[in-house]
């Protein structure tokens, strides 16, 4: 099976490369060869690549920049997704696509279900929602997976930023009035591929699902947990858990509004695929172990 993976250089894409290799040959063209900013170029490229499965992990993920870079965000998150989904439907090629908790406004007082009405607060969320709609309207056999607060053993996420800041500073602050579940790329990759295998084998189960780690916290709670868990794994931090100050979103300047409630109810995914999703704290420990090991190997 030839698997086309877009966004292979991203956080999730890196985790998916090895996991998808269990299913076949993974082709992960870089942006210069398969540019989702150029939606009109993609049909010919898909014809030439002729994949048996498409996994779209590419996205315009700069949430604040998207507020003023609307056309670029829409091209990657919506227009190109529509082209890819239509190609997948026309060629009966299965598609895995990722979306986000940011399609919701966060006003509900419980975790969001797939049946809840999206109402994005920012451009990123709005363009991701347009991408979802394009996938669903295409009629492709698709697994559409909404996830949240993505991080992995790499740079460019909250964990990496906190580890750097905590090594440099003796105190810092983090937003306490946004709640969600930090979800690592290893979990998403393994759970996606396990679900995909079942869909491919049974021919059923395609659709929209929420996929995130179990449990919930705020960005503040996440930072405190990092400060608790990292020192025992060899990370030299200046900042102890008690020196982290909870602050409100309004005190953290950002261009884009973010939902206060990012919690995703993942019971449909768990029940459909028989998969129990681990708690975010347990997964954080695992990712810190991986980071500590790679740091140790590099020194
Ligand atoms: N990050 C989060 O907290 C979060 C939360 C919820 C859902 N998600 C969703 O999860 C999925 C994976 O996110 P992630 O965190 O892994 O993202 P990421 O680390 O920012 O990676 C994005 C990937 O998309 C690629 N990309 C961006 N623009 C492109 C273009 N014009 N053409 C081709 N490729 C392009 C990037 O390639 P380059 O290396 O060339 O830039 C990179 O490989 C996305 O669908 C995202 O919306 C993410």
TrEMBL record:
Matching Gene3D superfamilies, A to Z? Answer: NAD(P)-binding Rossmann-like Domain, UDP-galactose 4-epimerase, domain 1
Known pathway: Carbohydrate biosynthesis; dTDP-L-rhamnose biosynthesis
Function of the molecule: Catalyzes the reduction of dTDP-6-deoxy-L-lyxo-4-hexulose to yield dTDP-L-rhamnose.
Per its record, what are the GO molecular function terms?
Answer: dTDP-4-dehydrorhamnose reductase activity
| Cofactor requirement | Mg(2+)
Q: Which residues form the RmlD-like substrate binding domain?
A: 1-291
The EC number(s) this enzyme carries: 1.1.1.133
What keywords were assigned to this record? NADP, Oxidoreductase
Task: Tell me the organism.
Answer: Crenobacter cavernae
Where does the UniProt annotation place the signal sequence?
none
Query: Per UniProt, what is the name of the gene that codes for the protein in this document?
Result: rfbD
Q: Which family does it belong to?
A: Belongs to the dTDP-4-dehydrorhamnose reductase family.
Protein name stated in the entry: dTDP-4-dehydrorhamnose reductase
EC class, as a word, reads oxidoreductase
Which superkingdom heads the taxonomic lineage of this protein's source?
Bacteria
Question: Which reaction is the catalytic activity of this chain?
Answer: dTDP-beta-L-rhamnose + NADP(+) = dTDP-4-dehydro-beta-L-rhamnose + NADPH + H(+)
Q: How is the cofactor bound?
A: Binds 1 Mg(2+) ion per monomer.
């Amino acid at each position: 099976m030839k698997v086309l993976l877009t966004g292979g250089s991203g956080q999730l894409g890196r985790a998916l490369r090895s996991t998808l290799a269990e299913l076949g040959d993974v082709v992960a063209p870089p942006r210069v060869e398969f540019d989702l900013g150029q939606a009109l170029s993609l049909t010919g490229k898909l014809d030439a690549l002729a994949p048996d499965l498409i996994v779209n992990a590419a996205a315009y993920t700069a949430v604040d920049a998207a507020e003023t870079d609307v056309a670029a965000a829409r091209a990657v998150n919506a227009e190109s997704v529509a082209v890819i989904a239509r190609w997948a439907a026309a060629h009966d090629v299965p598609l895995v696509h990722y979306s986000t908790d940011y399609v919701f406004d966060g006003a509900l007082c419980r975790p969001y279900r797939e049946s809840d009405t999206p109402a994005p607060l920012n451009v990123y969320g709005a363009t991701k929602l347009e991408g979802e709609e394009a996938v669903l309207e295409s009629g492709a056999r698709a697994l559409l997976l909404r996830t949240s607060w993505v991080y992995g053993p790499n740079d460019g996420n909250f964990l990496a930023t906190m580890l750097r800041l905590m090594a440099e500073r003796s105190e810092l602050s983090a937003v306490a009035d946004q709640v969600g579940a930090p979800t690592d790329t290893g979990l998403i990759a393994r759970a996606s591929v396990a679900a995909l295998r079942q869909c491919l084998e049974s021919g059923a189960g395609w659709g929209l699902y929420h996929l995130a780690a179990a449990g919930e916290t705020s960005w503040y709670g996440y930072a405190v947990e990092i400060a608790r868990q990292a020192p025992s794994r060899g990370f030299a931090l200046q900042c102890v858990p008690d020196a982290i100050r909870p602050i409100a979103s309004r005190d953290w300047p950002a261009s884009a509004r973010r939902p206060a409630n990012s919690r995703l109810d993942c019971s449909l995914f768990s029940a459909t695929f028989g998969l129990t999703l681990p708690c975010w704290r347990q997964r954080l420990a695992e990712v810190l172990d991986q980071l500590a090991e790679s740091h140790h190997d590099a020194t």
